[in-house]
DNA sequence: GTCTTGGGTTGAAACGACTCAACACGCCTC
DNA sequence: GAGGCGTGTTGAGTCGTTTCAACCCAAGAC
């Protein structure tokens, strides 16, 4: 069965293609009786609109893409969840792309998305200096909203959580518990969130005159955390507390420490970041720094549609949320 | 800046559009010198192919859609991960859609995907009887591969894990540990996986003459598990073991039991399903039934491309994997 | 009886890329 | 010098939809 087009429907209903189009797009402009005839024809032939043709005509698709660092990270799925309803109700369709923290995959996605003439883009870019690639999109009139990325020099709207503040909060909590030697475990420092969290942490440590050891995990997941712990345990002086750049890493760290018989929190405390659902369900419930995840997504989508609506006279907005400490068992022991 | 088309490039390079098209699609057919001229023109104008136009002409997009029950479930993200490389290397693009276990959302996604003339579809359908909606797609020449769905009556290729066997395995493990009263917690029974796991469990219980109590959680996630536990604890005789339809539910159950001061596994054992990464990292490491997740995705994608390649003389294939018991602390106590 | 008005409908012109038959040109052969 | 060959290039036609000026026609105004 070869695909049926509007022409076939028109013929079957004895009207012109223009009328079929009207039935589909502005039914109120078509006479009752005609409309019905067209609709039965559509049903009988099993006609399905061809979106490519629509888009070609419209010059733009109705897809909103969300490019995340890792779909397997609950943080991002929550962000996506937050954005979806808003996009949906605006008649858009969400496309999720996973860059896997890899610049080349991100690049490939961006190229494809540009070819698809997406309506807009929410992205957590892999590195800090990706602006040139993104600006190419904005130059081609594709609005870009940065997610979880501070109000920097970039010419885009953005939503973010104050990661420096979050880093400070986590470190302050550890200091308050009496720790005097702290390790930081986090993925590529090039990822701004990681850098900021570390910066906040470092600031507090310096103020308090505390030793800080930073480990660079290969990536921000469970395996990365486990591996970093291996390194850490090789130190002559093993720190008594670990601040992980996100909860997945923290879970990995927890596994690593437990495997080596190090008691959490008695011998080593752990604090994560994001407060994903699994954090509370971990072997030792994880302390963490909570981010308003779905709100991030929702706000980002909102900014995107605002930008689309405002057109020329749009000025970029940068929304920053404050994270919040959630203390649990993994930092419960006082020294 | 209005979008530049092949025509603009052609003009700038002093050639015809046909030649530009050739440079893009069959560069070897174009003379070296011409090719270079066209390429500089492309670079200078910042030309980007218009995918809608391509697709319109081709009659088909290069998108492969994966429709899952829940993107936040690591099981599915792993399946997606498994499928991605294969789709990628076949020149396709993956689109992930989340049905959220909701028939209407699934339906909406299917409609949109059909309008987009996707290359093919990997789907874990919400209910068992969704075949009519899917057959509409196949009637329109869109190949569909069922994921995690047994070799039933359906006219599709499929990959699946033997869920009845998995259910039996889990139940047998509990019986072996001496439990004589077991609860099953699982989402809508209409979801075939849930039904099958329950069936396998029930069969073993009947053979062993053991009491089985089944609870229907609203959905297959952490919250669903927590809520079901509330119900279960209301029973006059509280079961001594719980078999959860997936690990998220099991994590929820673990939270629920812990909240009510019920010790796991001493007072109540738990076994989950899927063996997601978080299962091992839980407060009490969860026993589970492991599925070859990424292999499911990879095989599904393979079947899809096989079907596309074989065309007319394709016969559907149903691949079934065997799951595997992973015993951990949550079922460690003997009675 | 002519003139408006306006609800319905029409048909052709876009949109941008791809395809393919036709052609142009240089070179070689007989 | 006619014919054949091979390599490059062309341009018109096509995909399916939307849009919009033009048109038709019946009803109401004068």
From TrEMBL, chains A, B:
The segment(s) forming the HTH lacI-type domain are 4-58
Q: Give the Gene Ontology MF terms in alphabetical order.
A: DNA-binding transcription factor activity; transcription cis-regulatory region binding
Secretion signal span: none
Q: Name one Pfam family in it.
A: LacI
- Please indicate if the UniProt record lists DNA-binding as a keyword: yes
Q: Does the keyword Hydrolase apply?
A: no
Q: Which keywords appear in this protein's UniProt record, sorted alphabetically?
A: DNA-binding, Transcription, Transcription regulation
PANTHER family, sorted? HTH-TYPE TRANSCRIPTIONAL REGULATOR GALS, LACI-RELATED TRANSCRIPTIONAL REPRESSOR
Q: What is this protein called?
A: LacI family transcriptional regulator
Q: What is the source species?
A: Glycomyces buryatensis
């Amino acid at each position: 069965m070869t695909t049926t087009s509007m022409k076939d429907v028109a013929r079957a209903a004895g009207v012109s293609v223009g009328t079929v189009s009207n039935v589909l797009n502005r039914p109120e402009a078509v006479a009752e009786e005609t409309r019905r005839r067209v609709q039965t024809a559509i049903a009988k032939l099993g006609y399905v609109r061809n979106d490519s043709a629509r888009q070609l005509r419209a010059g733009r698709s109705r897809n909103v893409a969300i490019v995340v660092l890792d779909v397997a990270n609950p943080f991002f799925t929550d962000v996506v969840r937050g954005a979806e309803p808003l996009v949906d109700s605006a008649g858009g369709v969400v496309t999720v792309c996973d860059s896997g923290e890899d610049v080349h995959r991100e690049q490939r996605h961006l190229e494809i998305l540009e070819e698809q003439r997406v309506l807009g883009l929410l992205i957590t870019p892999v590195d800090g200096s990706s602006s040139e690639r993104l600006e190419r999109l904005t130059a081609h009139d594709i609005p870009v909203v940065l997610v979880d990325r501070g109000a920097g020099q970039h010419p885009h709207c953005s939503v973010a959580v104050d990661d420096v503040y979050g880093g400070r909060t986590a470190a302050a909590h550890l200091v308050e518990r009496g720790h005097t030697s702290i390790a930081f475990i986090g993925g590529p420092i090039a990822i701004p969130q990681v850098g900021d969290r570390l910066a906040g942490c470092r600031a507090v440590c310096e103020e308090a005159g505390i030793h800080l050891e930073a480990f660079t995990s290969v990536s921000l997941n469970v395996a990365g955390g486990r591996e970093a712990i291996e390194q850490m345990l090789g130190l002559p002086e093993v720190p008594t507390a670990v601040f992980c750049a996100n909860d997945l890493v923290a879970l990995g760290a927890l596994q690593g420490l437990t495997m080596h018989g190090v008691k959490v929190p008695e011998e080593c405390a752990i604090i994560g970041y994001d407060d994903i659902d699994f954090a509370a369900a971990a072997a030792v419930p994880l302390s963490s720094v909570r981010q308003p995840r779905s709100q991030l997504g929702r706000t980002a989508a909102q900014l995107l549609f605002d930008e689309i609506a405002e057109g020329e006279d749009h000025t970029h907005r940068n929304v920053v949320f404050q994270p919040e400490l959630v203390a649990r068992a993994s930092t419960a022991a006082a020294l």
